[in-house]
Write a structure and sequence with these properties.
- The chain is of the alpha/beta class.
- It is 20% helix and 32% strand.
- The chain is built from six helices and 14 strands.
- The strands form three sheets. A six-stranded mixed β-sheet has the order 1-2-3-4-5-6, with helices on one face. A six-stranded mixed β-sheet has the order 7-8-9-10-13-14.
- Strand 11 and strand 12 form a beta hairpin.
- The longest helix is centred in the C-terminal third of the chain and has 12 residues.
Amino acid sequence: MAELEIRNLLVSECYTNCYLCKNKETGEGFIIDPGDNELKISANVSRIEMKPVAILLTHGHYDHIGAVEALKKRYGIKVYAAALEKQLLGDQRMNLSALFGNPMTIDADEFLQDGQKFQVAGMEIQFILTPGHTPGSGCFYLESEGILFSGDTLFYASRGRTDFPGGSEAEIMRSIREKLLVLPEDTEVFPGHNESTTIGREKRYY
C-alpha cells in the first residue's frame, strides 16, 4: 500500500477544498478540484515536492474548475471527469461561471463511467457516480487507503445543494444512501467544502 500525503487548500470565493494528493513513494500526485488560485496551488505543489500527473474533478461547477486550464497548461497533465458531466462542463450557465461573472468552459481528457477503476500516480482509484448535486457528480474512492473524496455530494453532517441546474434532492439522497454509506464505516471522507468526516459518522444523519 502506497503512503498518500494529502494537503488541503481553500480556494475560490466559495471556500472550496482543493486537495493535493502525493504518493510519498514516487513523488507523483494528482490535484482534486482546483477551483481557483492557480498560483497558490502551484506554490504548494512545489512546497511538498509533488510531480502532478492528473487533475480529478468531482463535478463541473465553476468553484471546482476555475484553475483547471492554467494548471493543465503549466504541468501538461490530463483532466478526469464523469462522462455525464460533459454537458455541464461545456455550458457557462449550467456550471454557474456566467452567473458569477467569469464565464468559462472546459473539456476533460478522460471521461469516467460509474464504478470505473483507473491508475493515477501509482494509486488505484475508483470513480463512484453520485448524481444529485449535478447530473455527473462523483466521488473518488481509494479503497487501499480508506479514503473517499466526496466533492459536493456528502459533507460533514450535510450534503450538497440541489437547487442548481440538473440538481435533484431525490437523486442525491439515493446516491448517499446506496453508494456511499455502504462503504466501510472507518472510511475517511474529504468533501468539497467544510471539514472532513467519516462514513460511520455520517450514517447517523441518513
